[in-house]
Amino acid sequence: MFKIIQDREKCIGCGACVSVCDNWKMDDDGKAKLKKTEVEEVGCNKEAAEICPVQCIKIEEV
After folding, report:
1. Which ranges of the chain have pLDDT less than 70?
2. Cα separation, 43 vs 45, whole angstroms
């Protein structure tokens, strides 16, 4: 099991994570938002974390 953590204050709303992973969506405030914070497989969330220009996405194994 993995926990996806986003520092929303750092998010600049570029949408990079949304473009590579379906676990992310753009919220009404113009920032990205997680659909699920805990996932069994890291999957595309790892790519979302790597592609984020402000590095506001972290992944922890739980």
Report:
1. none
2. 5
Instruction: Domains for the chain: give ranges and CATH numbers.
Output: 2-61 (3.30.70.20)
pLDDT digits 0-9 by tens, 48-59: 999 999 999 999
Predicted model pTM: 0.93
d(CA 36, CA 20): 15
Question: Could you write out the three-class secondary structure of the chain?
Answer: CEEEEECCCCCCCCCHHHHHCCCEEECCCCCEEECCCEECCCCHHHHHHHHCCCCCEEEEEC
